[in-house]
Amino acid sequence: MENVHRHGDELIENIAGRVLVMGGIVEETIGRALEALVSRDSEAARAVIADDGRVDAIELEIDHLCMEALALRQPFASDLRLVTTAMKIATDLERIADLAVNLSERTIELNVEPQLKPFIDIPIMAQRAQEMVHGALDAFVRRDAKLARSLIPMDDELDRRLEQIFRELLSYMIEDPATITRAMRLIFVAKYLERIGDQATNICEQVVYMAEGRVIKHPGVLPPERGERTE
Amino acid sequence: MRPGGSEPRSTEETRPERVAPAEEAEARPVIESAVLRVKDLSLWYGASRALHAVSLDVAPRKITAFIGPSGCGKSTLLRCFNRLNDLIGDVRVEGSIFLEGLDIHATDVDVNMLRKRVGMVFQKSNPFPKSIYENVAYGCRIHGMSRRPDLDPIVERSLRAAALWDEVKDRLHESALGLSGGQQQRLCIARAIAVEPEVILLDEPCSALDPLSTARIEELMQDLKSDYSIVIVTHNMQQASRVSDYTAFLYMGRLVEYGETERVFINPVKKQTEDYITGRFG
Asked: What domains are defined for chain A?
């Protein structure tokens, strides 16, 4: 079979490239938000919040490129799946960046009072969340469903650590109500990191769909037949 | 988006996965009471083999599209359905085609009756150099009908069915050659349906038409499919994806993939199909 250069190739490749760039920025944002939290650096936390516009702008750019590809190239098969997946991944990445912004907001609030306890589990959660995002984007660019699937169980670890942090901070609050404000804020932080894991899981599920055409989200729920309505 | 992390997610092992069509062997559609049943059909033009053991069922009252690069055998396969290839010398056919259970190659089959049941519209509209009325009435006259009171309602019904009546009702006796390209093509469709066929074969019916005329023909196909089974050969993949219920992809005389159109265009099973519909070759 003869391979020819396609007019649409560059546009589709460009979309994948921009998703990767966005992913890189988001990954870095998680790292910066964690660093600001652990080093109690409100200035750095404010910078994370201020930089969120970069992620928003690239999300709009990816949306635009995908609309352009759909309207002007009418992609089919794996190209079509890549374009629709890229749109969804861009939304997930933007949400992740928003969670890093929320985390930085809590950092600034936490820095008003003395540190409640040393950070142990939260940095590990942040690291796992970063690894999941990194791996999910790797899987996206390599169209690697196996890698995407292998990352999904990492989300369970984030869930477990959130539970652990919750129990630990609950005991602080019971013992001394003066810690409630700080403890609650730290629980929020852990919750944000756990949500990042959920968003990264969404990306992994999208990658499996893109690579194999299989729907693995919402197990047990089948997509409607052609022309059928769900409600 | 999912609810938060209080419940751990199920892991990969516990997730029941939907069996994607990609998993099913061949991912062929299940077609009940097929109007046309093709079995191991091979065809040679002289020494050159144009079809290699093609088997497929054509669904009744649906639109089936044949796609594939030039020379893949899609028009040859289409022309087998009303034995139009008989008109070309030095053609040899093996295998069988059944039209509602009738073996169309059986010795007692009247080819004219077969072509009445399986009508055809070609790429280039080919109205006869006669009036609009006579073009539509032509098939009926061949089959022995000649009285105006019998023909008039058939001509009107056929032109209405082909969405042409309103445009030509005041000039039925003018030459068909004065019609626009799109109108001529709809006239050819009216001529095909005047004899009440069961199957309509369309060989690139829109390739010479502008987008508006193309849209009218596509709309017409949707209207016609409640009464007829339609098979269309098209080079235009957007058209195949827009109009058809089932799509067959042929390559080098072989049926590579056949399935529900939506599945074939979103999630093709075969790499050759994928490469063709994404424009990587062809």
From this structure: 9-212 (1.20.58.220)
Out of A1, A6, A8, whose CB is closest to B272? A1
How far is residue B217's CA from residue B212's CA, in Å, rounded to a whole number? Answer: 9
Q: Which of B207, B167, B170 is nearest to B187 (CA)?
A: B167
Range of the domain at B76: 28-123+198-277
Instruction: Count CB neighbours of A88 within 10 A.
Output: 16
Q: What is the ipTM of this complex?
A: 0.73
Residue B76 maps to a domain: yes
Q: Most B CBs within 10 Å: which of A9, A72, A76, as the mutation test of the B interface?
A: A76
Does B171 fall in a domain?
no
Give CA–CA dist B274/B266, Å, rounded. Answer: 9
Inter-chain touch A214–B268, beta carbons under 8 Å: no
Residues of B in contact with A216 (CB under 8 A): 15, 17-18
Per-residue pLDDT of chain B (282 residues; tens, 9 = 90+): 444 444 444 444 443 444 444 444 557 888 889 999 999 999 999 999 999 999 999 999 999 999 999 999 999 999 999 999 888 889 999 999 999 999 999 999 999 999 999 999 998 888 999 999 999 999 999 888 889 999 999 999 999 999 999 999 999 999 999 999 999 999 999 999 999 999 999 999 998 888 998 998 999 999 999 999 999 999 999 999 999 999 999 999 999 999 999 999 999 999 999 999 988 875
CB-count exposure of residue A44 (10 Å: 0-12, 13-18, 19+):
middle
Q: What is the dihedral of CA B250, B255, B260, B264, to 10 degrees?
A: -60
User: Is residue B65 one of the residues assigned to a domain?
Assistant: yes
Alpha-carbon distance B29 to B248, whole Å?
Answer: 10
Report residue A125 CA to chain centroid gap: 13
CATH number of the structural domain spanning residue B97: 3.40.50.300
Q: How many domains does chain B have?
A: 1
Entry pTM = 0.81
- Say if B173 falls within a structural domain: no
